[in-house]
Amino acid sequence: MSDTPIVELSDVTKVFRKGTVETHALRGLDLKVERGEFVALWGPSGSGKTTALNLVGALDSPTSGTVTLEGQDLGQLTRRQLSRLRRDRIGFVFQAYNLIPVLTAFENAESVMQLQGVPTATRRERVMKLLADVGLQGMEHRRPHELSGGQQQRVSIARAIAAEPAVVLADEPTANVDSQTSETLLQIMAKLNSEQGITFIFSTHDPRVMKYAKRLVGLVDGKVHSDVIKEQGEAVGDLSV
Length: 241
Prior knowledge:
This protein is an alpha/beta fold. It is built from seven helices and ten strands. α5 packs parallel to α6 (179-196).
């Protein structure tokens, strides 16, 4: 592992304001994630999981503290630089899939590489392999409405890793699929992590995700409550807070 964490949050706070009402989502959060980790942020609703993921993904900015990706302080980057960072270094897997309805599975998966200017032949080779890796061989030309929820999420995973990002952020990726599909998706992501060294950070309350994760970071009231390294498949045990 590199001496520099791939992700680091240092004394991060996030306060949401609506009128005179303030909601403290994160309260001095400290977290380091090393390259190649498979991490699940877990905790009750309102614990700060999704907020933390949004800050790492440069979708939002902290009220105070610093968020770094590959040693870069995100707070020091311009909007254009942040946009480029999201495009090139961060893969996103959302619970709502966020596929483009008029594009095929192939076109959705290659979309980020198109923005990067990757040559057509390279895009085709990489996307065809990725779609096969996630079990969608032969479905390349189907549009999202022709795919099941689980299949759409597989396209989302392929799209997230096609551009070879530094880290993949997965926000409740199993929330809208059945248990069997959830298990399959997690097996796919665990294989990508172990065989290709792709770093995954999840926000979740799903015990199935926690079973596959190698590290469990429990959040409560915007702070780290527990931080456990485990073997893949190891029983989760008591995670009550």
